[in-house]
Write a structure and sequence with these properties.
The chain has one domain (2-186): Orthogonal Bundle (Hypothetical protein af1432). It is built from eight helices and no strands. It has helices spanning 2-41, 48-60, 69-72, 80-86, 89-111, 132-147, 158-170, 176-186.
């Protein structure tokens, strides 16, 4: 019985450590995406207020994952059911911090996984239905996710990241105009 209790205590400790690491990665990712989004947004001649909304939304775009920390703290691939649950994180984020984001910021957070081809989530919006700031955030988010180490894989080389962004733009997953500016901006490795 004592061995069982020790094993359970060790398992619970590993789970807590894993959740803490996931929270740290979520925070670091959000900070990086905030910087990337503002830098990329600057290439679109956005007004100061628009850049502020973009930065705030970018820093909080994944806050809905806080309610799903057990899902994102694993070290392996998610099941189909877990991936489906994760699709709700933009809406949960808006519920958590929507008042602080303002109406435009709420739309940007809610739409950061929408795709020009209409296959994104949570609403399945297409091309011009997607707020331009959400398109910028989506590219910054993708770039950081690909160019950074994750709990389940190492970062991709810059040439592969650029190729993946261009491929996703060609497939209608990311806005091609935003990807074009991102490639010019980050294609040489400067973040």
């Amino acid at each position: 019985m004592l061995g069982y209790n020790i094993a359970m205590a060790n398992s619970e400790k590993r789970d807590r450590i894993s959740r803490i690491e996931a929270l740290q990665e979520l925070w670091q990712h959000s900070r990086r995406v905030g910087k990337l989004a503002v830098t990329l947004g600057g290439k679109f001649s956005l007004k100061k207020g628009e850049l502020e909304v973009l930065e705030r939304a970018a820093k909080l775009h994944d806050v809905g994952k806080l309610l799903m920390i057990r899902l994102v703290s694993g070290n392996g691939s998610l099941t189909a059911k877990e991936r489906e649950k994760l699709r709700y994180h933009p809406a949960l984020g808006v519920l958590l911090v929507g008042l602080w984001l303002g109406s435009t910021g709420r739309e940007v957070v809610m739409q950061h996984h929408e795709q020009p081809n209409g296959l994104g989530y949570p609403r399945g919006l297409r091309e011009d239905q997607i707020h331009p700031l959400a398109g910028i955030l989506a590219v910054a988010d993708h770039y950081d996710a690909l160019a950074s180490d994750r709990c389940y894989r190492k970062r991709f080389k810059l040439s592969k990241v650029i190729q993946m962004l261009e491929d996703e733009a060609a497939l209608g997953i990311l806005n091609p105009g935003v990807v074009e500016k991102a490639v010019k901006l980050w294609g040489n490795g400067v973040r």
